[in-house]
């Protein structure tokens, strides 16, 4: 939001477009760190709370909606600022992923196998079909493994054939800010502990009543998956918190790896405001 305010001071209208895949879901607020309306400083935020937890979400679907939204904002003289850490979703919009044809029956079968057999079995199958894709994908990331298997099976080509070009499809500025690893881990662990103090378990119970466990995307969200296990008696609270900390740390590493291909690291605490001002000069 600092970016919007810096731009506003220079007479440029800007609005926020959410690029966190889990903040798309209504009611998934605490463990997604979704800003409450009163925390948004009066700045319009798009792509928040647009899906029920029973609905699936894909980067291709996000790409279609957000590309249309960006065109609308630009026609109104508004600069869209994508904010979030879902690398595939962001890259799909910025770099124009050409998503391969889908096979709903194949996807459904792969998702059933993921549910019944776990991610390791599918990852091994991907390794046999496309070793390079398997090397790039975390074996624990079952959804991405399913996407890759579907693409390889449908197209008969390596998964990388569907990756985007290295140039954005429209004029773009990218800022990727991160702290030193030790400080980041400390902050992440504290934030996870705060989720439980803030009432995550009650939130997840409410969402479970709304069908969270049937939501193929939402139920896998970090924090929510572990809270569901706690509610189901599979984990104690301490175990659920520790599992969420571990998953969060691993995800943050993948985020750093994803985005560093586009920008240099910039750990300075005031880098966002300084960077925005510098690119406008």
From TrEMBL:
Cofactor(s) of this protein: Mg(2+)
NCBIfam families, alphabetized: miaA
Catalytic reaction(s) noted: adenosine(37) in tRNA + dimethylallyl diphosphate = N(6)-dimethylallyladenosine(37) in tRNA + diphosphate
Keywords, in A-Z order: ATP-binding, Magnesium, Nucleotide-binding, Transferase, tRNA processing
GO aspect biological process, one term: tRNA modification
Cell membrane in keyword set: no
Documented EC number(s): 2.5.1.75
A Pfam family assignment: IPPT
Keyword Glycosyltransferase: no
Family: Belongs to the IPP transferase family.
Site positions per UniProt: Interaction with substrate tRNA: 86, 107
Molecular functions (GO terms): ATP binding; tRNA dimethylallyltransferase activity
SUPFAM superfamilies referenced in this protein's UniProt entry, alphabetically: P-loop containing nucleoside triphosphate hydrolases
Name by which UniProt lists this protein: tRNA dimethylallyltransferase
Functional description taken from the UniProt entry: Catalyzes the transfer of a dimethylallyl group onto the adenine at position 37 in tRNAs that read codons beginning with uridine, leading to the formation of N6-(dimethylallyl)adenosine (i(6)A).
